[in-house]
Design goal:
alpha/beta, Spore Coat Polysaccharide Biosynthesis Protein SpsA, Chain A, 11 helices, 10 strands, globular
Length: 281
C-alpha cells in the first residue's frame, strides 16, 4: 500500500478495516511505499496503530519519471501510482509473496482468506471481469496496428483491476516482469496506445495469464468513472472488499456534504471524522 499525505485518510481507514476483520490482527504485517520521508505521516501512522508491524520503503521516482505518459486524469500520472510495478526491486529479497492494495479500499472480511489464494503457476492473482469491454482500454491506434493488435494472440484477455492483487514476488523478479511492463511504457511514449495510467501496460503483459479470484474481493468502481466520478451502486453478490476506484473518493464526498450512498459504508472506518467528533464532544 502506498503512503501519501494526500491519501493518508484513505490509508488509515484501509488499515483499520483490515485489522478489525482479521482473526489474528497481531499477525498482520504491512509494507508501505512512499516517495519521500514525511515525518508527520509516519508519526500519525505509528500513534494510530502502535501495535502494527510495518516497514516503509522509498520509491525512487527517477526510476519511472521518463516513462510516464499523460493520461485522462492527473492523479493517475503520479509516480507513486506506478510503484506497484517495481515491488520486486523495492522490497527485500526475503519478501516472496504479497497482497497489494490501493489506499481507497475497505476490507470487510478476513484478509487471511485472500492471502491463502492458490496462484498455481501464475505470478499474479486478482478478480477478472471478462464481461467488460476489453478493447476500450486501448486506443484505436493500438487495435489498427497489425503487429500490436496481435499482442493477445493465444490468450483470452480479461480486464482486472490492479488495486487488489496477490503477487508471487519471486516469480515476478525471475520473470523480469518489471522490464516487460516498462517496454510497453516505452511504446506508449512513441505511439498513443492507451489513455489510462499504470493499468494498461500491466494488462498488456498479464491479461489472460493471471489466476482469477472471486469478485467479492474487489467490489471496484465505487468512485465512479475517471472523468466525473459519478455515484455508482454496489454490484450484486457477496462482498469482502470495497474499492473506491475512479475519480470520486469517499472522504472528499463526505466532507463536501454530497456523499454517494456507498460512501456511508466507508465512513465507519474514517478515523479522521471519529477523532474530530470526539474532540468536539
Amino acid at each position: 500500500m502506498t503512503l501519501d499525505g494526500n491519501y493518508l485518510r484513505g490509508t488509515m481507514a484501509a488499515v483499520l478495516s483490515i485489522l478489525r476483520h482479521s482473526t489474528c490482527p497481531e499477525n498482520v504485517g504491512s509494507n508501505f511505499l512512499w516517495v519521500r520521508h514525511e515525518a508527520e505521516v509516519l508519526s500519525r501512522l505509528k500513534s494510530t496503530f502502535p501495535y502494527l508491524s510495518f516497514k516503509v520503503y522509498t520509491f525512487d521516482t527517477k526510476r519511472v519519471r521518463g516513462l510516464i505518459s499523460k493520461s485522462i486524469r492527473q492523479a493517475l500520472d503520479q509516480p507513486l501510482n506506478y510503484a506497484r510495478i517495481y515491488l520486486g526491486e523495492i522490497l527485500p529479497q526475503e519478501v516472496k509473496r504479497l497482497i497489494y492494495l490501493d489506499s481507497d479500499i475497505v476490507m470487510v472480511d478476513n484478509v487471511a482468506k485472500l492471502w491463502g489464494v492458490d496462484l498455481k503457476e501464475n505470478v499474479l492473482a486478482a478478480p477478472e471481469y471478462c464481461h467488460a469491454n476489453f478493447t476500450r482500454y486501448f486506443s484505436q491506434e493500438f487495435w489498427s496496428d497489425s503487429e500490436l493488435s496481435r499482442t493477445f494472440e493465444g490468450r483470452q484477455p480479461c480486464y482486472f483491476n490492479t488495486g487488489v492483487m496477490v503477487v508471487d514476488v519471486e516469480k515476478w523478479r525471475n520473470g523480469n516482469y518489471t522490464q516487460k511492463v516498462e517496454d510497453w511504457m516505452v511504446v506508449q511514449k512513441q505511439k498513443r496506445i492507451y489513455h489510462l495510467g499504470s493499468l494498461p501496460p500491466l494488462l498488456l503483459v498479464l491479461a489472460g495469464n493471471i489466476e482469477p479470484v472471486d469478485h467479492r474481493w474487489n467490489q471496484h468502481g465505487l468512485g465512479g468513472d475517471n472523468i466525473e466520478g459519478k455515484c455508482r451502486g454496489l454490484h450484486p453478490g457477496p462482498i469482502s472488499l470495497l474499492h473506491w476506484s475512479g475519480k470520486g473518493k469517499p472522504w472528499l464526498r463526505l466532507d463536501s456534504k454530497r456523499p454517494c450512498s456507498v460512501d456511508h459504508l466507508w465512513a465507519p472506518y474514517d478515523l479522521y471524522r471519529m477523532s474530530k467528533h470526539s474532540f468536539e464532544e
